[in-house]
Amino acid sequence: MRKGGWVILALIVLGVLFASTVLFTVSEREFAIVTRFGKRIQIVSEAGLCAKWGSLCDTVTRIDKRLAIFQTRPIELLLGDQNPIILTCYVCWQVKDPVAFYNSLMTPDNANIKLRDMVQSSLGSVLSNYQLHDVINVEPEAVKLHEIETATMADFAAKAETEYGITVRELGIRRIAYPPMVTQAVHNRMRSEREKEAKKYRGEGRQAAGKIEAETDKQVALILAEAYRESEIVRGEGDKQATAIYAKAYSQEPEFFEFLRSLEAYKEILAKQATVVLSTKSRLFKYLVPDDMGMAASRPAKTRRGKP
User: Fold this and answer.
1) Were both Cys, which of 20, 25, 26, 241 would link to 32 (CB 3.0–4.6 Å)?
2) If you classify domain 68-178 with CATH, what class do you get?
C-alpha cells in the first residue's frame, strides 16, 4: 500500500475517534446535561445529534424525562381522632426542570427518597384533619379518600417543582390497613352502622305494614257496610213481598190464613216447656179447644195448665 493510503486510513481512524468522543445522541425520552469538571456547560432538551467540544474533559449526564412511578412503604400515621392507620401510597412524577433536578437530586433513586419523605410529612399533616369514619364507612359518599389525596398532593407538589424540578402528576392511596388495636374499633363501628341501618329498614317496614293494615281495615269496613246496605235492601224487598203475599192470602182465604198464623204462634209459644194460663174463650185456643166445649162453658176457666 502506498504511503498516501496509510495517511488516509489514519485520518479516517482519527476522525472516527474524534467523532466518538465529541459527538453524542439524545433520544426523545431524556434530557442531556454536559458538564466539564463538575461545571454545567450545556443542556440538551431536544432529541438529535449533539457535540461536546471539550472531548474527554466533558461528561454527559442523561436524565429520563418519562413518567416515573414509585410506591411508598407502609406508613403508620395518626388521624385527628388519635386512631392510628397504615397507608401505602403511589406517586407518579416527571422531571420538568432538568437543571434543578440535577443540582438537587441528580438520580431517580434520590428523587424517590426525597418524595417519600415529603409524602409522609404532608400526609401526616392532612390526616390530622380527618377522623376514622372519613376513611372507612359503609356509606360511599361519606368516604373522603379522594379529598385526602388531593390535599396531600397540593401540600407538597409546589415545593417539589420549585426546589427539585419535579412535577407530581398523581398521588393515590393504594392500600389501607389498621393496627390490631384499631381493627376491633372498626368492626364495632361497622356493626353499629349496620344495626342502625337495619333498625331504619325495620321501622320503615312497620310503617308500611301499618299503612297497609289501615287501608285493608278501611276496605273491609267499606265492603261490610256495602254488604249490610245491600242485605237490608234485599231484606226490605223480601219483607215487602212477604207482606204482599200475606195480604193476598188473607184476602183469598181468611180462615185458612188465620189457621196458619195460629199454628206459627203455637210453634213460637210452645217451642220449649212452658206453662200458659189463659181463658178458654181466648182466640189462642180456638183451634185447640172443641167448639162445644167452648160454648158450654158458662164462665171462663180461671186457670188452665198444660205442657206440650
Assistant:
1) 26
2) alpha beta
